[in-house]
Amino acid sequence: MNISNKIWEAAEKLGLDYIATGGGFDYVWREVGKGQxxxxxxxxxxxxxxxxxxxxxxxxxxxxxxxxxIYVNDPDWHEGTYVHFKTARKAMKFMAGVQDxxxxxxxxxxxxxx
Length: 114
Prior knowledge:
This protein has 114 residues and is an alpha+beta fold. It has helices at residues 5-13, 88-97, 106-111, and strands spanning 17-20, 26-32, 45-51, 66-72, 81-85.
C-alpha cells in the first residue's frame, strides 16, 4: 500500500478504509451509501483523501494540507467536489463524520414523495 504508516494508522483508528486504484495510486477512502432508491437514483458517495499539492497522491504526513474529493454516483471519479483542509488529520475526521443520509432516515422521507 502506498500510504504512509502515520496516515494509515490514523485512518484505521477513525474506521476509514483504503482503495488501490492501480499503478501505485492508493488512497484513504470511504464509501457512504450503496444501491439505488425507488426512483432508480444512485446513492453511492466516494470520499477520497488526497494531497493538496498533488491530487494524484496521498498526503505523506498528518499535518500536510489535504483535500477530500467527494464523488456522488461517479464510480470512475470523473467529476467531484473538492473540500480543502489545513491538515490530513482534519480531512480524515471529516471523512469519518459523514453520515449516510439514507441509512439514518433523512432521505427516506424525501424518497417517499417521489
